Amino acid sequence: MTWAGSIFDTAGTPAERIARLAWFLIIVSAVTYLLVLVATGIAMRRARARRTQGDLADTRPETGKRLTRNVAIATIATTLILLVYVTATALTGKAIAWPLNARQPLTIEVTGYQWWWQFRYRDSVPSNWLTTSNELHIPVGRPVRVILLSNDVIHSFWIPELHGKQDLIPGHRNTTWIQADRPGVWKAHCAEFCGHQHAKMQFDVVAESPAQFDQWYIRQLASALPPTDSAAKRGHDVFVQRTCIMCHSINGTEAGSNVGPELTHIASRPSIAAGSLPNTRVNLGRWILNPQLIKPGVRMPPNALSPADMNALLDYLETLK
Ligand code: HEC
Ligand SMILES: [Cu+2]
């Protein structure tokens, strides 16, 4: 499992403004903290110097006046700093609001499931709506409006390089937006504890050129090709005759259930089980045999397949590019 990137390694406007605010708060707070430490140190040295002179309490009137003045200055400075913080935070909030003049935004509906992600790309033509799982592709330079929904409990959508966190709440529609200003591949996380396997609820984010994005989109929209060789054909039969069909969909076959992730193009994805494992043949086999060993409590039952059936099934899944 790889940990997500950094909020300081920004790739888009909202994240960049948030990082700027974070640096501002960190630096001003650090300097303030150092000044307080220095002042405390000076006060302690003075007190000790007085004690060694046997002078326990300094009761001179000018000392009292000086102290009153210093405390007043410090109080005013603290209030001013807090006001500056509030203003900077409000300005950042304004700067990262959805740009009303956004041209040709892409709209993606994100639904959180325990413990995986479903992405639905909206299009003005209904037959061009695309449903994928656990991998989010976006075109560089285009604003993406993200509608956040949940199928069960509260999750949180977080791509550190692109924006702050936003909750996915059952029965409620939240929205946020992202825009990648440079190409990149990132790991994103669920950022709200959502049960046993919350830590293994990640997704891959790929920001690519508009042309590459369009190519990806067209490929994903296509139905799965019917298997050609005999092993893959047998694998297809295993898939539709076993329980898989109750929970998964593969466009172009009779499998059309949405309990688990969409598998039409599973072989094109870099990872499986919501970013928990690299998508290799061995990992796919381990996962299908007993997903409970990889994500205990996961909503997919073990599958005691014969080695021949398993190999055929893996051959078939590998054709789903
Ligand atoms: C009771 C429902 C159910 C059944 C039956 C089921 N699955 Fe799953 N499957 C799921 C769920 C839910 C997930 C997502 C688990 C997670 O990552 O938390 C999943 C994940 C997967 C994944 C990983 C997908 C990804 O993008 O991460 C593959 C591959 C998969 N299942 C294949 C199969 C195969 C093959 C079968 C039949 C042998 C099968 N499943 C049977 C519910 C099911
Ligand atoms: Cu979650």
Blueprint (SSEs and pairs):
Layout: H1 13-52, H2 61-95, E1 106-113, E2 116-121, E3 130-133, E4 135-139, E5 144-150, E6 155-158, E7 166-168, E8 174-178, E9 184-190, E10 202-208, H3 210-221, H4 230-241, H5 244-247, E11 271-272, E12 277-278, H6 281-289, H7 291-294, H8 307-319
Parallel strand pairs: 1-5, 4-10
Antiparallel strand pairs: 1-2, 2-3, 5-8, 6-7, 6-9, 9-10, 11-12
The protein binds heme C and copper (II) ion.
Describe the structure concisely:
The chain is of the alpha+beta class. Helix content is 40%, strand content 19%. The radius of gyration is 28 Å and the shape is elongated.
Explain this structure.
The protein has 321 residues and is of the alpha+beta class. The strands form 3 sheets. Strands 3-2-1-5-8 form a 5-stranded mixed sheet. A 5-stranded mixed sheet has the order 4-10-9-6-7, with helices on one face. It folds into 3 domains: 13-95; 106-218, Immunoglobulin-like (Sandwich), CATH 2.60.40.420; 230-319, Sandwich (Immunoglobulin-like). The protein is built from 8 helices and 12 strands. Bound molecules: heme C (HEC) and copper (II) ion.
Major beta sheet, specifics? 5 strands, mixed
Q: Mind telling me the CATH superfamily name of the largest domain?
A: Cupredoxins -  blue copper proteins
Shape: elongated
Second CATH tier, the architecture of the largest domain? Sandwich
User: Regarding CATH, which class of the largest domain?
Assistant: Mainly Beta
**Which stretches are low in confidence, meaning pLDDT under 50 for 5 or more residues running?**
none
Strand line-up in the sheet with most strands: 3-2-1-5-8
Order of helices and strands: HHEEEEEEEEEEHHHEEHHH
- How many domains? The number is 3
Residue share in helix: 40-55%
Number of strands: 12
Computed CA radius of gyration, to the nearest angstrom: 28 Å
Count of alpha and pi helical runs? 8
Structural class by helix and strand composition: alpha+beta
CATH topology of the largest domain, which one?
Immunoglobulin-like
- Ligand names: heme C, copper (II) ion
Mean pLDDT: 93
The span between the termini is 23 Å
Percent of residues in β-strands = 15-25%
